[in-house]
Design goal:
Radius of gyration: 21 Å
Number of domains: 2
GO molecular function: ATP binding; ATP hydrolysis activity
Family: Belongs to the MoxR family.
Distance between the termini: 36 Å
Structural class: alpha/beta
Strand content: 15-25%
Keywords: ATP-binding, Nucleotide-binding
Order of helices and strands: HHEHEHEEEHEEEHEHHHHEHHEHHH
InterPro entries: AAA+_ATPase, ATPase_AAA-3, CbbQ/NirQ/NorQ/GpvN, ChlI/MoxR_AAA_lid, P-loop_NTPase
CATH topology of the largest domain: Rossmann fold
Helix content: 40-55%
Number of strands: 11
Protein name: ATPase AAA
Number of helices: 15
Amino acid sequence: MSTLNDFENLKTHLQKVIVGQESLLERLMIAMLTGGHLLLEGPPGLAKTTAVKTLAEAVKASFQRIQFTPDLMPGDVMGSDILDPQSGQLNFVKGPIFNEIVLADEINRAPPKVQSALLEAMAEKQVTAGGKTRMLPDLFIVMATQNPLEQSGTYPLPEAQLDRFMLHVVLDYPTDEEELEILRRDRSHHFGEDKEQLNAFLTPEMVLSARHKISEQYVSPEVERYIVDLTAATRKLEKYDASLAGIVEIGASPRATLSLLHSASAYAWLQGRDFVTPDDAIAMLPDILRHRIRVSFSGRAQQWTEDSVIAEIIKRVPVPMTQTAQTAAQ
């Protein structure tokens, strides 16, 4: 069994290893607690890889980092049949995807064929090769990093694959004070000390137990409707203001609605609550929608971005007065 205190201890440990990046650490935990895949975007050197590796170590999960490069082949990720010279039989050798936490580093440096090869694994938690389907571990999640698309040698991810990621977190450079702390920690070799304390926080079984608890979080009918309204607004912005018509070229799918529900439930649980509020949905909405909507050409001409559209949706969609909020107000 796992408790909230176990995950609070985990977050404390992550904070000892990673300076700042509060949103990143929280989103890493939410992805793990929901079984959702996570896409991290930001320039190199922001501790994306270190954070994911530290998380895997702390939950005693099998971990594999895959460095995506332009010459990577699908078999390098999924595995392939290898001829045994002694028996003359083809034996399947599992690829690095067969781990509980997989870090797909610089995923947008690999060609589209390799990116697409991840689709079945991410969507179905299984791999089909040589006519046989093999299941991936129960805990299986992909945490991918990508560099901004403006950088040379990058390929945009297919929309179908982007939709498989529950969260898309965009990272920025640390503040001057945070960077100073990074420098001091490096000089005093604190990273080595932290790793000695890893004996243990969690196990994959404890994570799966927490996932079950989160699936039982109470969500009122009003909050359910609000979650649906938030994602549906991406497909009919003109409902709230006729001048917004045509700004969004591609709206969010129902998978976004499910992702918002699951992530808001995990966010609420980490706050120590057994119920979900509209604020939980609002907190998770940017990371849920950012990669699932596309601003049209005319929208960009009017200086709209995906993030500004999401902010407008939060402002326009009426927030329900739930029973919990009414009780607090009284």
